[in-house]
Design goal:
This protein is α/β, with parallel strands linked by helices and 442 residues long. A nine-stranded mixed β-sheet has the order 2-1-10-11-7-3-6-4-5, with helices on both faces. The chain has a two-stranded antiparallel sheet with strand order 8-9. Helix 9 packs antiparallel against helix 10, helix 10 packs antiparallel against helix 11 and helix 12 runs antiparallel to helix 13. The chain is globular and about 95 Å long.
Length: 442
Amino acid sequence: MTMKICQIFLALFILLLDTQQPDSLKKNYLNSFENILKEYRFELNITKNSIDGYGGELLLEEAKNAEILMFGENHGVQQIAEFSHVFYNLLSSDEPRILVTEIGPATASEVEFMVRNRNFENFMEEGVNLHSVPFFFLEQEVPLLYSVVENFPDSVSSIWGIDQEFITGSPVVFNYLEKYTKTEEEKKALKKVRRKSFINPFLIGMGSGKALKELQIAYSNSTSKEAKKVINHLILSHKIYKENMGGDSRWSNEARESLMMDNFEHQASVFQDSLPHLFFKFGSYHLSKGRSPTVKEALGLRVDKWAKQRDWSTLNVFVDAIDGETLNALIGNKESLPSIEIWDSSPFKNLVYLKNATLFDLRPLKEHSELKDMHYKIRYMVNSYDYLVLFPSATSSNFLEGTLVTHAYGIVLLVIALIVFFLLVYVIIRVVRKFKTKHTKQ
């Protein structure tokens, strides 16, 4: 009898504890990570103009209710680029969204100008210009730009670049700066730095930075605040790159994230209370609503805090693939997705639909006890994203012109090859002559 009473009290105590826990915590105690994953996975059928299936309806309904949609991606994948385009169009069907993306402010202004004038592709395919706008030098990314600008009149800035200026962005940034160049001294300085950027296409991020400082001096008396702002931004971009590649990388990552938030707040302040809804498109680390492998407070978390202050909601979605290839944007070759190994060792791999994309709601999995035994990137992703979209396989994107070596680069490489060839011939002739002279004297 006593034993039965004890058992009843114990059962009631456990039941009381259980009813006081939030649903997400109950699942942590009662279900395995994989069982929860099975319960919160949904199929997505993505076409050129629609996202169907129960998962599609669920994602679109919640995304439309969020004033800020954050699309975190693995770059260089066709399926992801095409998904971002159709997703943007569907979200903008009721209220057009501004695109906030991973390029610099000057670059974004110039890109929007070229897209509106329908000469963006022509510019990108001219010689060294190909690599000047990340990641819109990829064919599958360009349609998104046209969809964005078509949603807004010319008077509205619809593409916001809030990142540092790109390491090989000289052609497009200097085109923008030229619009604010007035005096002869400024024109000469700009022409000089253009020549140097042709010799060193990585001028914004590599080298001593002397050319950029000389540009700053030349524009010191400029009446244009925009010109000075662009040059100051270039110098900061150079410092961020330099520290990241051979100095204090922790400072570099934090400085970059802070710069992006500052640039975003500046753009938003222009609209005041009439700010349209937003579509952020960045590499996955940046849009984490928490810590990321690189910084304590990622851009996504900073934006989420900013949104809450104005009673806005955010939703962030991480998009990747279980298998396949991506394009190395620097070298130009196709390579395996860097995340394949991470997914291979996770419960996600065996739960992905083989024909369509899979949507996982990550919120019931946050802080699950089993996360501590998983790869740290999986842990970060689950704890800082709302949704995950996984494709069963990925096809690499391709450059607008289809090749890394464009006409100008080809000419430069040919000239270098000829110079090396003639130097080599010259050295061989000198060695042979010395050898003959030596033996003649003997």
